Structures are given as C-alpha cells and as structure tokens.
Amino acid sequence: MLRRRSSPLKALDPVQDCSEICRQIAGYEFPWDVTKALEIALFRTFCVPSIGKLLDTTGEFHHRPQKRYDDTGLIISSILKWGHDSEQGQAAIGRMNRIHAHFPISNDDYLYVLSTFIYEPIRWIERFGWRRLSEGEKQSLFQSWFIVGQQMGIQDIPATYEQLEQFNRDYEAQHFRYSKATQRVGESTLALFLSWFPAFVRPALRPVVYALLDDAMLAAFGFPAANPRLRQLLEALLRWRGRILRYLPPRKRPYFYVDTPQRSYPQGYTFEDLGPPGLLRSLNRSPAPASPNSEMPSPALGPSGPGS
After folding, report:
1. β-strand partners of 262
2. pLDDT digits (tens, 9 = 90+) for 171-191
3. Which of 64, 73, 157, 163 has its CA 20 to 30 A from that of 145?
C-alpha cells in the first residue's frame, strides 16, 4: 500500500532555523515548484512600469537575456542553498548590492521585488505542490527574506507576514499597467523561455506561457488573453503532478539552480563574473556597498542557518 510523504521540517523552529527550513523547501521539498514560481515572480516584477523601464533601458534582457537570467538565478539560489548568514550567502548578497548600486531603484520597487520572492513560491505551492506549507514554513520564508531585505538596505519593511503580503497585493493593484517598455522586456523574456526548447515546438509553447500568467500580467505585457480551456488543462496537470509526488520517496539529493550547468558559464563562474559586462571592471575593483541605500546602517545578521 502506498504511503503519503510527510514533511521532515516540523521539529525546526520557524525563526531560529529559518535558513535551514528555506534550504529544505527550495532544495528538497519543492525544488521544481520553487524554481518555476521564482521565474514567474521575476516575470511579474516587470509589470511595474518603473521596473520595466529600467530593464528596458539597460538592454540586458534584450541583448543578453540568458546571462541576466543566470546571474539572477545564481544569486538567489546561492542565498537559498547556503543561507543568508553563510559566507557564500553574504558573498551573493554583497554582489547583488554592488550591482544594484549602479541603478536608480526606488525603495518601494526593492520592497515589492523582495515580497514576490516570498509570496509567489507560497502561492504556487498552495495551488500545485504535493502538500501545503505549514504556517511555520511560511513564516520562515518571510523571516529569511526579511533579513535579506535588511542586508540590502531596504527601508520600512512591514514587520509581519500579513502586512508584507498586503503591501504586495496593494502594490500590484496600484502599479500594474501596460507600457511599451514593459512589453519589450516581456517579449524578450518570453523569447528566452522559448529558446530553451527546439524551434519547431516554440509556436505551440507560446500559448502555454500565456496560460501560466494571470490576466493582470497579460494586460501589463500587452499579451493576448489566455485560452481558458488550455489554462484549465494546464492547471489540472500541475495539480495531478502534485498528487502523484505525494506518494514518491523523498528526495535524497538537493536540487539548486546554482549546482546545475549554466548556459552562460559552460566553464564555470565566480561571483566576479556576475553582472552587466559593461560594469564588470567597475564592479570588481570597487568595494561592495553595505546596501543600495547608503544612509541605512548595516543591519545585524539574522538567525544562523546551515554552514554548508
């Protein structure tokens, strides 16, 4: 008789062990789900015109979309794998701060992007995961990214899970709207996603991507409405995938994006390789700022996580 899997994280403390809980969620419990949800999260942030305009202006998603994607994935997965307070996690956050310091990004945009890293994985797992996250696990995701936000120098981060989630929803309601810059960045990102598949199937996959995006995102990007039947079918397949996974053995080896071969770095990489090529010389010779907001004091490190 098949037995349902259970979570091994119940004995851990949501605050003190938040790094380890996040590592387990992202690397063992829901690796594919977290990766897909973070892809949607990054795509989602482009729907804010100020963010879309900045990305359109830099041209990185138009000229080097794979490198831009890989650099973001490597930084985020380094934080998730090793923890925000590890040597590797601190190096990833420092590199991210150094890159961000070259661009005019508002505090609210920083805060919104941070919030998507918490709530998009939670919402995806709630819909399609093999089990639901516990309240403690949700709080651990909030706590870990809250500390990362402090180390980025983000100001006025809401103090509770519920308050930050409300900010996330309100920000989207107030700011999601169509712009030509957002459409250009969206098309370049969609072309990147499709480039991972053989050319002959790409036209058929474009409607699938539309079906994964909600109506507010489609409108902001100027994409056509999703086929409702295709959306229903896709959601049903993802739910069935989750049900099947309930009865499979737990994953014994972790999966993190940082451990996979990167299209942009077939010979490997260091943190000094990450960032826009035109800024690499400056990035690698200047000291890393404590945060993009130089007036912010350096925050204390959060609770300890895994050392490796």
Report:
1. 265
2. 999 999 999 999 999 999 999
3. 64
